[in-house]
Amino acid sequence: MEAIAKEASIKGGEFIVRETEAEEIFIPEEFSEEQKMMAAATQDFINQEINPNISRMDNLEEGFMSSLMEKAGQLGLLGVTVPEEYGGLGMSFNTGMLIADIVAAAGSFSTAYGAHTGIGTLPILYYGTEEQRQKYLPLLASGEWKACYCLTEPDAGSDANSGKTKAKLTEDGKHYLINGQKMWISNAGFADLFIVFAKIDDDKNLTAFLIEKSFGGITMNEEEKKLGIKGSSTRQVFFNDCKVPVENMLSERENGFKIAVNVLNVGRIKLGCGVINGCKYVTTLATNYANERKQFGVSISSFGAIQTKLANMAAKTYAVESASYRAGQDIEDLISSLKEEGLEPAQAKLKAMEQFAIECAIIKILGSEVLNYIADEGVQVYGGMGFSEEAPMARAYRDARITRIYEGTNEINRMLLVGMILKKALKGEIDLLGPAMAVGKELTSVPSFEQPDLSQPMAQEKDTLRKLKKSALMVAGKAAETFGPKLNDEQEILMHIADMLIEIYAAECVILRTEKLMSRYSEEEAKLYKDMTTLYLFDAVQKIKNHGDEAVACFATGDELKVLLMGMKRFTKTEPVNTKELRRSIAGKMISVNKFPYTLY
Amino acid sequence: MKILVCITHVPDTTSRIAFTDGNTKFDKNGIQFIIGPYDDYALARAVELKEQHGGSITAINVGEAETEPTIRKALAIGADEAIRVNAHPEDAIFVAKQIASVAKGGDYDLILMGRESIDFNGGQVHGMVGEILGIPSISPVMKLDIEGNTAKVTREIEGGKEYLEIEMPFIAGCQEPIAEWKIPNMRGIMSARTKPLNVIDPTGDNPMNVVEVFEMPPAKSGVKLVEPDNLEELVKLLKTEAKVI
Q1: Whole-prediction pTM
Q2: What is the dihedral of CA A367, A371, A374, A380, to 10 degrees?
Q3: Subunit contact B186:A34, Cβ cutoff 8 A
Q4: How far apart (Å, rounded) are the C-alpha atoms in residues A53 and A56?
Q5: What is the DSSP string of A92-130?
Q6: Which of residues 165-184 of B touch A (CB under 8 A)?
Q7: Which residues of A427-441 are buried (b: 16+ CB within 10 A; e: fewer)?
C-alpha cells in the first residue's frame, strides 16, 4: 500500500506567502512498508547488477547498458508510474520519485534510466492517443524497447524552440519526412523509439513525432567523449528523409514546445530527487574513508576539519530529501484532487506539474548543486586518493557535474522560477502584492519586539523562516516595482532572488520535517534531525542575507538602499549558533555508524 | 511439491553491533534487518524448484511482530504463504521445536533453510529439526536438484565435495552457489500484501539458554610490518608480542 494521498492544500509557489503546518507536509519516513521494500529492491538491483560492473558500464561495453535496462524492466522499475492498463505498476508520483532517488547511486545508469522513464516515456503517456499509448507504453515499461528524447540541436539548446529540424508532409499525405540534426541525445545508441521535435514547413513552433528506429533514415555519430556519466550513451542523431507515418505525430501540430516544457517539469523534479541516494552513497564512502584513513596516528574522522565536511554533506542531503518528497506529495495530492474533479489522469498529472513548476525548478537546482558540493567534498575527504581513478570519488565528481546542465541549466531554471512566481502573482493565482506591501509598511515602522512562543516545537526556527520570507518579498517586490516587465532582462537580480527562494523553500521543508519527527521520536532520537535543521537554517540565513544585500544594491541607491539594507538586516537577524558543536554532534553520529547518519529504507 | 523455507530476521551485514541493558540485550537502535543471506539462497532455490516442478512455498519465521516486513519480503520474492510463530527466537532448540511443530502438520517434501543464521551463527537448527521429525538433514548444501522423488545434492565437506542422492522429505541447510539471490520485482512486492501471513502461537517448549552477558571481542591492534631481511625483529615480535613461539 502506498502512503495515502490527501486533499491538495497548498498551491504551487504559494510557500513564499503561506505558513504551512508540519502535519500538512509529507516526509519520507511516512513511506509505506511496500514503498520501502521497493526502494530496498532497487538498491539490491544496484548492488548486484551495477556496482560489480561499473567499468563495463563506463567503458560503454556493447549491449551492457541495454541489458541493464532490460533487467530493470523485468523487475518493474521502468514502469513504476505507468498505469497498469499500459503495462506499468500504476504507482503514485512520489513512488516514482522514490525509485529515481535510489537509482541516483547508480552513476551513468541513472541517466539512462531517467531519460527512458522520464522524457522518453512521459510524452506518450501525457500526450499520446490511446493507440499510441497501447502500442508503445507496454514495450517501454517492460524494457523491451528503449526510448530517447531528441530536442536539443547544435544551435538550439536552452532556446529549444529555435530548432531547425524540419518535417514535411509527403505528397500522398500519409507520411512526414523528417530532416535535421539533434545532439546530446541520451540513450541514442540503443534506443528503439525516438521522440523527435521538428518544425512542419515554416511553423513557428515545434511539433513532436514518435519515430521508430525501424522507420529508417536515422544515422548517428560516434559516442560523445564526455567529462562524466561515461557509461551513458550520448550521440548526435541525424534524420535524413526519415519517413514517419502521420499517425505518429504526438499531440497536435505546433504543440511540441509545450510538450517539451511540461515534460521537463517532471524531469526536473525527478532529477533533483534523483540525486539523493547518490549524495548518501558518496557521504557514506567519505565517512568510511575518514574512519579508516589514519594520519598523525589517528583516524582523520577525528579532525574537526573533516567532521565539518561530513556534517555539511548530511545536512544538505537532508534538505534535498525533505524538499523533494514534500513537493512530490503536494503534486500527488493535486493530481488526486484534479482526478476527483473529473480530469483525465494524464491531464491531471500535467496540470499538477504545471502548477508546481516553481517547486520542480527549485528542487532541480537544489538537488544538483548539493550533489556537486558533496562530490567535491567527497574528493577532498579522500585527499590524494580522491584524485585517483582507483577510488570511487573521481567518478562521482565527474558524474555529478552534468546535473547542473541538463533538464534546463540551473541558470535557466533560476530565471524561470522567479518569472513563474511573478506571473502567478500577476494572474492573481497567489497574492504577492498584499504581503509585499505589508512588508514595505513594516520596513518604515518601529520593529516589533514580539517574541515567538518558545514552548512550541521549532518556534524559533519558524520565526526566522517567517522573516526570511519577508526578506524575499521585499527584494522581489522592490525589484518588480523598479523594473516592471523589464525585470526579465535583469538576470543578475533574478538569480539572486531565485537563490533566496530556493533557500527559503529548502529551509521550510527541513524545519517542518523535523517538527513532524520531533512529535514521533524521543528527544534523543530527534537530536540528529534538530541539529541538521539548525545547521541548514544557519547556512540558509547567511546565503539569503548575501543574495538580498547584493540584489538591492544592484538597483537601489541612497536612502532607499539604506532602508532596504536595514530591512535585510532586520529580516535575517537570528540567534547565534555554535556551528562547531552542531557539526561535531552530527559527524559524531556518522562516525559511529560509519555511514550516512540515518537509514530510511 | 510442498516446500517449507525457514527465514531468519537478522541485522544487515554492515551493522555496527552494540548491546544494551548491561550487555544482556542486542541494541536494535538504527539497525536494518534483512532475510539471513543463507536463508535467501534457500528461498531463491525454492523459487527455482517451484518454477521447474510446480507446487507451493511456505515461508516460516520464529519471531515477534517486528519481523513481518522481512517475512513479506520472502512473500515478495516468491513464497505463496507465510507463517510467523509469535515468539522471540531464544535459542536453536526452541526455534527447531517451533519449526518441527509446524512441519509435522504440513506434509512438506522439502524443508530448506540457510546453513546458519548470521546473528549467532549456530548452524544447529537444521540438524535439530531433522532429529525431531526423524528425517535426514544435510548441510551445507551447495547444489540441489530434484528428479521424481529423489534429490541430487552436493554438500561441501572438509577439503572437498560430497555427492548424495536422497529421498524426500529431508532438510537442507543451504549456501552459495545453490542459487543466486533474487531481487523481488515490483509486482511481487505489490502482491505480497495479499498473500496469507498466518500468525500462530508457539509450542509450550521453553528455551534452554539464558544470556548472562554479551561481550565484544577485544579491538584488534594494527598490523606491524617487518622488512623481509629483518628476521631477528620478526622472531622477537613473534616471541614477545604475538607469543606464538
Answers
A1: 0.93
A2: -150
A3: no
A4: 5
A5: -HHHHHHHHHHHGGGTHHHHHHHIIIIITTHHHHHH--H
A6: 181, 183-184
A7: eeebebeebbeebbe
Q: Check whether A459 has a pLDDT greater than 70.
A: yes
Neighboring chain B residues of A529 at a CB cutoff of 8 Å: none
> A122: which 3 cell numbers?
512521459
Which residues from chain A sit within 8 angstroms of residue B76, using beta carbons?
A: 37, 41
Kindly give, in sequence order, each residue whose CB lies less than 8 Å from that of residue B217, ignoring residues fewer than 6 positions away: none
Report which of A410, A104, A438, A405 is spatially closest to residue A277, judged by C-alpha positions: A104
Terminal CA-CA length for chain A: 15
Domain span holding position B65: 2-217
Give the minimum alpha-carbon distance from B69 to chain A in angstroms, rounded to a whole number. 7
Whether the bond into A83 is cis, omega within 30 of 0: no
- Model confidence band, residue B243 (pLDDT cutoffs 50, 70, 90): confident
Within a domain: B194: yes
What CATH number did the domain enclosing B117 receive? 3.40.50.620
Strands in B2-6's sheet, in edge-to-edge order, are B160-167, B150-157, B137-147, B170-174, B110-114, B2-6, B56-63, B81-86, B197-200
Q: Is B20 on the interface with A (CB under 8 A)?
A: no
Out of A75, A89, A598, name the one closest to residue B183 (CB). Answer: A75
End-to-end Cα distance, chain B: 57
Inter-chain contact A89–B187, Cβ cutoff 8 Å? yes
Phi, psi at residue B154, to the nearest 5°? Answer: -110, 125
Angle of helix A392-401 relative to helix A357-382, nearest 10 degrees, comes to 150
H or E stretch including A269? helix A256-273
Residue A112 and residue A186 in contact, taking contact as beta carbons nearer than 8 Å: yes
Interface test with A, best of B43, B71, B183 (most A CBs within 10 A): B183
pLDDT reading at B26 higher than 60 = yes
A153 DSSP 8-state letter: B
Chain A residues within an 8 Å CB radius of B73:
37, 40
* CA–CA distance, A30 with A153 (Å, rounded to integer): 42
pLDDT of residue A261: 87
Q: What's the whole-number average pLDDT of chain A?
A: 95
- Report residue A149 as a C-alpha cell: 528524447
CA distance readout (Å), B210 to B25, B93, B119, B204, B206: 11, 13, 16, 17, 11
Residue B241 inside a domain? The answer is: no
Instruction: Name the CA dihedral angle for A507, A511, A516, A522, rounded to a multiple of 10 degrees.
Output: 130
Asked if A127 contacts A255 with a C-beta cutoff of 8 angstroms, the reply is yes
Residues of A noted as catalytic: 407
Residue contact A76–B187, C-beta within 8 A? yes
B226 lies in some domain? no
User: What is the pLDDT averaged over residues A316-327?
Assistant: 98
The C-alpha of A43 sits at a distance from chain B's nearest C-alpha, in angstroms, of 9
Q: Using the structure block, give the residue that is written with the C-alpha cell 536422497.
A: B166
The DSSP line for A306-353 is HHHHHHHHHHHHHHHHHHHHHHHHHHHHHHHHHHHTT--HHHHHHHHH
- The position carrying cell 524545519 is A511
Residue B212 maps to a domain: yes
Cross-chain residue pair A34–B193, CB shorter than 8 Å: yes
Instruction: List pLDDT tens digits, range A24-67.
Output: 999 999 999 999 999 999 999 999 999 999 999 999 999 999 99
Enumerate domains of chain A plus CATH numbers. 147-256 (2.40.110.10), 422-593 (1.20.140.10)
CA A233, A235, A240, A242 torsion: positive or negative?
Answer: positive
Of A330, A337, A332, A310, which is closest to residue A93 (Cα–Cα)? A332
Query: What total of structural domains would you count in chain B?
Result: 1
Q: Reduced to 3 states, what is the DSSP secondary structure of residue B138?
A: strand
